[in-house]
Amino acid sequence: MSATSTVSGSPTALYGGQAGRRVTVRDIAAAKQRGERWPMVTAYDAMTARLFDQAGIPVMLVGDSAAMVVYGYDSTLPVTVDDLVTLTAAVVRGSSRAMVVADLPFASYQASPEQALASAARFMKEAGAHAVKLEGGRRVLPQIETLVSAGVPVMGHLGLTPQSVNVFGGYRVQGRGQSGDELMADAKALEHVGAFAVVLECVPADLAARVTAALSVPTIGIGAGPACDAQVLVWQDLMGLTPHPAKFVKKYADLAGEMDHAVRAFADDVVSGAFPGPEHSYR
């Protein structure tokens, strides 16, 4: 399997490719055709966005998970368009190659297609987002149709949709039994109206595999097994900052431990007078 493709006349590897232009929905579609898997991570500020961009991450999501990991709420529901527009603009400024996808937060699109377009327009015009993501299946098809027809790339989100956590009665696996048929129908409907990718969150691995095989657009898994075309994690989860991560999280670093050690060392040096030393002082 080739690691590169030619899109718009330019050789491009989706993951780890050279800087020079942004990843586009055409690149995402081509990766699906090649059978190429790729990573997506969340980002909420310019500094981490720059690091992830330099690492070759092709897609960054400014998720409504910022409600919890940035603003300290206990769910995604309180975060607003104003909150996320500011964060999205920072991620766009901090990156040069990755596609930046912005979450449409709770109550910013459910009321009508017109509301969805007004919210998406703010992310595109004020923050420079390249696409938006919204949650739900057939109930949000009118919103997706309106956005796509207006030129806004849309990423769908099925399974455990955190904005509906109160309806689900908690963060639970979705799509078991007959509800799997409903999820499959929703996924096909999202593709039909123009979604360029579909996130599958907390669904059985066998169902995610069937949905991935049935769609011509890529699936992005989070707690959905290994068969999805891409995988996404909240960056604080994969870096070991989250105290009690979900089962689907693999911790790739222990930044919590490193940061604890560093700040304690700094504090000890200040108390003892070891910092600042002559090398940290001006003459």
UniProtKB/TrEMBL annotation:
Record field: transmembrane: none
Active-site residues, as the UniProt record annotates them: 201 (proton acceptor)
Binding site for 3-methyl-2-oxobutanoate: 64-65, 103, 133
E.C. designation(s): 2.1.2.11
GO molecular function annotations of the record: 3-methyl-2-oxobutanoate hydroxymethyltransferase activity; magnesium ion binding
Domain of life from the UniProt record: Bacteria
UniProt GO cellular component terms: cytoplasm
InterPro entries documented for this protein: Pantoate_hydroxy_MeTrfase, Pyrv/PenolPyrv_kinase-like_dom, Pyrv_kinase-like_dom_sf
GO BP, one annotated term: pantothenate biosynthetic process
Main location: cytoplasm
Cofactor needs: Mg(2+)
Keywords, sorted A to Z: Cytoplasm, Magnesium, Metal-binding, Pantothenate biosynthesis, Transferase
Cytoplasm recorded as keyword: yes
Pathway the protein acts in: Cofactor biosynthesis; (R)-pantothenate biosynthesis; (R)-pantoate from 3-methyl-2-oxobutanoate: step 1/2
Protein family membership: Belongs to the PanB family.
Functional description taken from the UniProt entry: Catalyzes the reversible reaction in which hydroxymethyl group from 5,10-methylenetetrahydrofolate is transferred onto alpha-ketoisovalerate to form ketopantoate.
Name under which the protein is recorded: 3-methyl-2-oxobutanoate hydroxymethyltransferase
Gene: panB
